[in-house]
Here is the input.
Amino acid sequence: MDRHILFILLLSAFFLFTVAIFVGAGEKRLDVYISVFTIEYLALVEILRPRRKLLTPLRLDPVGLGLFIIFCFIVTRKVVEILMR
Amino acid sequence: MSRFATVGVGLAGFGAILAAFSYFVLLSVPLTALGLAFLILGCVVLIFPEYLVPHQVVKGMISGSVANIEAILEEFAAAHKAVYLPPKDGKVYAFVPLSRNSFYPEFNRIVDAPKRIISNVNGHPGLFIYPPGSDVVALSGVVEETMGEEREKEGKEFSLEDFLPQLENAISYLIVDFAELASRVQVSFEKNKALLRMKNIKLNVEAPRFTRVLGSPPASLAACVIAQITGMPVKVVEEKGEGKWVRVVLEVGR
Here is the structure.
């Protein structure tokens, strides 16, 4: 199977399973969902390495970069929350 | 709009609406997450290239071209290392000197010489070869502009280190992701030399003269990328197998 199609299928399956499992576990925090989505996306990109239109000149993956920035924001907010307690 | 773009816009649009509606109206976190999942999937489909050239096609293209060039090099008994020239009209050519002593004419004269198969540069015969890597670089769309040329026009001094992140990303993307010629590439730079380490080379072509003169196909591809990006001449000076890895040394500059 073409790795691009495989990438999309696996990513869709991972996302759906994540939502299903978290709903089953009663998870109500949106940042947990986003963090897991980010990890799943970055892991799959690293394993399957699909071709993507990257941002020049550093050839950055725009979706990966966006998710990583959001992930960093979530982590920073959590760290600040813990420190402020 | 391409098929990928239509599907991407549809998924991203649906995901964004679902996420916003679930978050602000339904106040449901799981549905918001589902909307975000659709949004991410849509964006992923949107960033896929419009035309996905299968790696088998790229490998076939390289193998065919290598066989033709091997025959030409055999015919002329070329033995000296080729110089990959900065692109002209978006194409990278390689100059192979044919004189008995390994004399390379002045660089500017090579660049300005007419690009015929057999050419004479300042009294020195040589071959102008169109390496397979040149087409692969163009096909991948990885190099949008020759940065070296731009900097030269601006009158700026530049060295190989100025192109470090671009070169590292472009070489790795082309050899590992686009052409799938190796499973891993490590790039480092040392003065005017680019050092490449490639793991598990996946293209084995029987072309000893091509390898001796122009370097192995992955090394040739890397030389084309460096010439395209830096606008400087490149020579594959050394290639050595180290177990699963192959170490390539490329000399860059005039």
About this structure: The two ends of chain B are 45 Å apart (CA to CA). Residues 151 and 157 of chain B are 7 Å apart (CA to CA). Residues 3-26 of chain B form the longest helix (24 residues).
